[in-house]
Design brief:
Elements (H helix, E strand, L loop, with lengths): L1 H15 L45 H7 L14 E3 H11 L1 H4 L43 H10 L10 H14 L8 E3 H5 L22
Antiparallel strand pairs: 1-2
Helix pairs in contact: 3-6, 5-6
Length: 216
Amino acid sequence: MRRDLITVVLLLAGTACGGAGSGTSASAGSTVPATFERYDAGAVAGGPGAGTRYAFGRQPSDSLLGAWDTDVGKNGAELPPGKGSVAQGATLYAASCASCHGVGGVGGISPNPALVGRDSSAEGFRFADDPKLVKTIGNYWPYATTIFDYVKRAMPHANPGSLTNDEVYALTAYLLSANGIVPDSATLDAAALREVKMPYRDRFVPDERKGGAEVK
C-alpha cells in the first residue's frame, strides 16, 4: 500500500504542479468537480488544456520506492537486518535525544513528550477517564515493533531518517529497558523485537468500522 501511495504522489506531481505546457488553455471559469475521479488538472484555469498533462513528473524507480518504503507494522515482518544493545542505545540517546526528551526520557522541552515512566494514577489504562494522564512508551504504546518504525522514520527531529538500522535497534532497546520492559543487558534484532509484548497491548482493539454515521 505504501508503494502505491508513493507512486500516486509522484505521478500527481506531474499533473497537479503548475508550469508551462503544450496545448490550449482552459477557460477562466473552470472549477474542480465534486469527485477526485473526475478531476482534470489540465483543465483548470491557466492549465495546458482538458485531457492534457503538464510536462512534469516521472515514473519512480524501484530503488527510489525502496528508499521510501520503510514502514514496519505491528507484526514486525518488515523489520530489517541489524541489532543493537541497551548500552549502545543509552549512549545514542544521550547524544541525540536527551536534549528534547530529557535525561532518561522522563520529559524535556515542551511539546516533546516524555518517553519513559508509568504514572501510578494512569495504571489500569485510565486514559479515557482522564485525557491529561501522561502517555509514555511504557504505559501506552501497543507494539514494540512500531517503536522501531517511528524512530527510524521520524527521529531525530532535526534529521529524520539519518539513523542506521543498528542505531535504531539500540535506541529501541534502550527505551524498552528504561520502561522496564526488557532487561538492561538486552540486545535486540528483528526476531527478538517481535517477541516483546508491551504491557497494555491487550487494551487496544482493531477498529473495524467502515465509515459513515458510526464513526464519531
